[in-house]
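Annotated sample (chain length 170).
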Amino acid sequence: MINKKIEEILNAQINKEFYSAYLYLAMSAYFDEIGLKGFSNWTKVQAREEVDHGMILFDYLIARNGNVELKQIEAPEYDFHEPLQVFEKIYNHEKSVTESIDCVAEMTDDECDLATRNFIDWYIAEQVEEEASVYEIIKKMKMFGSEKSVLYHMDKDLGSREYKQHKYAG
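Output written by the structure step:
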């Protein structure tokens, strides 16, 4: 059976992953409202990946004979004004998720839970990828500006993103 402290922090992380999905869906709705269907697609794909991340944690807890405790998911923020601002919020959110994952890793070290430490390393690598992909979008938006033609081309580019189910590759 999994250590109680590890079980609690993994349950908290499940909640954070599902909250992330809610947040990305709120952002997707905003992009739909302003007519940026490609941006909306990108955030919808992101939402689905966050659900996958939560379910991977869920399944891991079950596999380790832990108890899954689903808590209420906080309502996401809806204060969006323009695409660059949304992606800056995404970047900051992903950095906070990275900090949370780092805390899980630290606790696995403190509790000498090498199996969970090995498992959580997948999330650490995933967060590096998440932050980098969002930062690339921000850099492009800052470099090219927010002219309508730039948004049009970025919208087409972001609209080509396809969902691929995330699975733990451990």
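Annotation: Helices lie at 4-33, 37-63, 83-110, 114-144, 148-159.
Annotation: The chain has a mean pLDDT of 94.
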